Structure formats: C-alpha cells, structure tokens
Amino acid sequence: MKAAKYLRYYLCILVFLLPLLFGSYAGGTEQPNFPVSILEWLICGMTPSFPAFLAPILSGIALMFAVAVHPAPPRTAKSCLCLTWSIPLLAGLMGLVRTTEYDYAFNWLFHFAGAVALAVAVYWTAAQDKELMPALLNSIVASALLLVLTGWYQRLIGLDDKLRMFRENAVKTGIPLDGKLEQKLLQKRVYSFFIDPNLFGAHLVLTLPISCWCLYGWGGHFKPELTSRRVLAGLGLLLFLVALYWTGSRGAAIGLVIGFAVAIWCEPIIQRWKWKWVLPVLAVVGVVAIVCFAALSHGREGMKSASARVGYYAVAWRMFTESPVTGKGLGEFFPHYMKYKPVHAEETRDPHNFVLGMLSQNGIFGGIAALIALGMPFFLAVFHGGGNRRRSMLLFGLCGWSVHTLFEFNELIPGTFYLVALLLGVVLLDNDEAPVRRIANWVRIPAALFGLVCLVPVLRIPGERGFQQLERGEFAGNIFGRLDELSESLPRSVGPLVMKFNVCYESLVPRLGREVRQPVPRDLAERHGLSAIRQLTRLVPHRSSNWRKAAEVFAVTGEWSEAEQAIEQALEWYPGNGNNYLVKAGIIRRRADWMPVAKTCDTYFRNQEDGYRLDMVLDEELKPLAKDLCDAANEAKFVYQDGRPIRFSIP
C-alpha cells in the first residue's frame, strides 16, 4: 500500500529533521527567526532554528495521516505509554487560570500536544507497519551522528571562525562585540544546531546509547563481522563522549552516569542478584548528595551555575507555596523570578527544573504530572527492564535525559523532547506482545480531531512571516498600519506591539550619546507610542521593563499621574533594577529631561555593610548631566525590598 509507505517515509524524515531544525525554545518569550525565502527554508536549521510552533503542526499532520491510512491499533498492556506526556499536557491547563502570558501559555500547550500527537502517530503506525521501528531508530541515529560531527566541526574550526568574523565586524561597524557572546565563544563549548550547549548535551545523553547499539548492528554488514561491529560501536562511543565533554554540561554528565547505572540494573546478571535493590537506593543517595553539594557550593568557582540554579529553585518553590493549587500561571516564572530574586542573582526565564517549573506555574497537579512523566522510564527499568538489550539502551538514554531535565529546560526543546515522547511510548513496546483487545474504531475520530487541533498554529504563519519581514526592513509604507494588521493576526503576541513602541520610544526618550537612526515625528511618536505601551502593559502586566518604559514616556509627554503609577509597577516587578529608581527620582522631581539620562545609564548594585551602593556608569561626557539625578535619588532615600537603604554614586 503506497500510502502506508509514504507515511513511514514521512515519520522517518520528521524524526531525522527534528533535532536539526527545532533546537529552539518553545514559548512566547522568543521571537522566532521565521524563514521568508525558499533558500532560508532549506538552510534555516543550520542557525537559527525553525520557529518551535511549526513542530506541532508537523506532528498533527503525522497523526491525521496515520489515522487515515491505518485502522485502530491493538491495545497491549503497555500501549498507554504513548500517552505518558499527555499527563503534563492536561495538568498544564491549570496554568491558564492565573496566567497573563497567554502567548507563552498557548505555545506551551501546543508544544506538548505536538509531542503527544507524534507519539500516538508512531504507535498507531507501528502496529500495522513492522518496518517502521527499525527505520525510525536508524533515522534517529543518523540525525544524532550528523549533530555530533557538527559539534566536532564547531570545536575544531567553526567557533574560531565565528569569533574572528564577529571581531572583524565589530571593527568595521564600531559597535563593540558583546562581552557575554565573546566569552561564550572563547569557552568553545559546542552546541551543534541547538541554542545552548547544555541542551545539546541532553540530546547526546538521550541518543548515545541507542546510537552505539545501532552502530554495533550496522557493523554486521561488513567483514570481518565481529571486528566491524566493535570498531563502529567504539568509534561512535568516542565521537559521542568527546562531543559531550565539549558541551561542558555537568548536568549531562550526571544524567549519563545515572543512565549507565540504569543500564547495568537491566542486565540479567543483576536482575538475578539477591541484593539488587541496594543499587537504586545508592543511586538516589548519590543524586541527593550531588544536589546538596551544589547547593552548598555558592563560593566555589566551578559551581557557579549549580548554585545559581539553587536560586532559581528557591523562587520556584516560593511561587508554588503562594499558589499551591493553580500555580502562578504558564509563562509567569520569569516576571515572578525578577520580582523575588536576590539583588545580585542572574536573570533567567525558566527554573531549569521541569518538576519545579510545573509546580510554580501549574500547581500541585503540575508537579505530580511532571514526576510521573520523568519517573516513567525509571519505573519501566525497575519493573520491566531486563531481558532486552535494545530496551536497556533506550532506558539508559531516557533515564539520563530525565535526570538532566532536573537541571535544564529540556522539555521545551522540540528537537529532543518529541523524540523522548515517541521513544517512551512506542519503541519500548515489544513487537510480539499479545494484544489485550483491539482499540474501538471510533477512537479514530478523537485521534483525528486531536491531530487537527495541533494544526491551529498554522494561523500564526502569515503574521509571523509579515513580522519577520518588518524586522528585516523588507517593507515600505505605513509601518504603523502594517504593525496594527500584524497585531490582529497575532492577537496574543507582544512582538508587533513591542516593535511599534520601540520605533516611537527612541524618538521620545533617546539614548544620550547616540543618534536616533530613523526618528519619528513627535506627534506620531506620542500618538502611536502611548497607544502601544498602554496595550503592552494591559496585555502583559507583569513585565517590569514595559512599565519602566511606560513611566519614561508618560513623563516626557507630561502624563505625571500615569508615570507615577507605572514606575510603582516597574519597581514591584523588578526591585533589583537600578534604572527604575532613577526614573522614579525624576518623576518625583517632575524632571522629564532626566528620563534620557536614566535610560542611558548602566546601574550596578554593590553590597555593603550598611545597605546597597548603586553605581551609575555613563560615558565621561555624560556624567555632569547625571549629577543632579544622582543627588535627587539620594534625597529620596530609597530602600530595597529587604529594608536596606540604597545610596547612589557616579564612580
């Protein structure tokens, strides 16, 4: 049957391309670099990735295709595994109760729906197409090998070339190279097609075991057979382990060790051991010890990222204790983290822990759902892990990925997460398992409808494409009218509103010492800028940066009452931003001419015995302009949220 063959090809191509094209972060906080030409569609995966909202569309097509081609599959004792990740999806609905970040929330829900749709599609197809499983595994391994080779290229050649190119561009343009970007490139941590080395490490942990197993099998096609098997598997192991080391991900190393322990547990000789239950206990103790060590290592140079994560976890736990039933809402971690974090803690948009992320944003049901989803591979390993080497290798990778997800936001990366969902739900099933009974044929209707729901993000494509064209300056005419049209196409997205406001913001509150490249006439800037910022603060009311910019614009347009209210909101949602205090000082004195100074200056909190010192860093020629603002801020006697006074200075 040709349709069944085409479906198999589609699924294999999809799982091959997912890690290459979808290594980006799924959520409303990103602005995807949407391809706008045929050439970009062909090479977009090389960097940047395809926008994440396209992944559920492709998975929805796969599910509808499978339902149309094949009858309802038989139901085995383990067939419900393909629905494992539907549990967090359902729990995520609780996050809609209190959220104000609806763009993030709906992208999150469709992201998880797409993973479930792909898992169900593969299970549905595998029941009828016995050639699908080997083909899928080979596709996953081939994709993983390409990623690993790309990582090797980055380490040996690519990152040096990129750093040299950035430095040359900085010299030509006169714009200094961003220090954080330069430091990241100097570290030479590989990331392949993913947005972060840690996320690439998670993908390597997931695919390393099954890749080595498949390479060992591929070696059987060459003579001498035993030598070929060992050489291919050994070479694959070397490539993967070195690439994993180059990612610099400690969480991935921990996941790999735990996954290896799971694989050992699944060995028949261990299963026959009388004291085998000692091993899981030791593994749990080891993980707890590692986490405690990270928590107590705030002052150690090598544990900075680990201790920073402890800070993320503390804020996530506080959010949960304040709203244990519903959580704070999907997408609400970032604004609440900025509100609660210690003054010197770094910024983050995610708690880097799936369980705590679900607890903080979706409440107790979300946390339980996350534990079930991450714990399922361990449950299978403990009670159904022995007797099958392929299964052991898959459990190795899945358990390692689950552990790493306690240190990173792996569940938000379609390129890896979708593979986890289908591997857990389908590949672990025994092909010869006796069915309990056939699933009723009427199930095809809700399955097809679920696949159809996953296609809803298609409605974003015209708006996303138009917005990307505007970002690149590929549009001539009334930009404000075009942005209004895009806001209607993307009613929950803040992207068009942010662009509309920024066009006016630079004209109303210029950055001192820099020329406004495309100034907007004052009357247009006031009309469209005020309209945009009011819509922004109404659409996403928990973002401090929007409130501070609103306060600046209200001040320069003489709306002092609204400026006072806006700056109070800005301070509530980010008390650790020094510029908020400077803007408030200018509003207290009714000095609109101080707003550009407050915007231009970089502020740094310094911890002292009797409070905080806030250094105002400007270019030398701008320091005289800031002196009056600094004096006014000191006269206002601002205090931080912990009650300690803030003193301003110009170093």
Quick tags:
single chain; 651 residues; globular; 27 helices; three-stranded mixed β-sheet; two-stranded antiparallel sheet; 3% strand; mainly alpha
| Strand-pairing-aware structural class | mainly alpha
Would you report the number of β strands? 5
- End-to-end Cα distance, whole Å, is 76 Å
Oligomer: single chain
Overall, the morphology is globular
Strand content: under 5%
Mean pLDDT across all amino acids: 86
- Biggest sheet, spatial arrangement of strands: 3-4-5
Runs in which pLDDT lies below 50 for 5 or more consecutive residues are 298-303
Helix percentage range: 55-70%
Calculate Rg over CA atoms.
27 Å
Largest sheet descriptor? 3 strands, mixed
Number of helices: 27
Structural features, described:
The protein has helices at 2-21, 38-43, 54-69, 86-92, 102-126, 132-173, 179-187, 197-218, 225-247, 250-265, 268-271, 278-295, 304-322, 333-340, 354-384, 389-404, 414-427, 444-453, 461-471, 479-489, 495-508, 522-539, 544-556, 560-573, 578-588, 595-600, 623-635; strands at 74-75, 437-438, 602-608, 611-617, 646-649. It is mainly alpha-helical and 651 residues long. α27 links the parallel β4 and β5. It has 27 helices and 5 strands. It is globular and about 80 Å long.
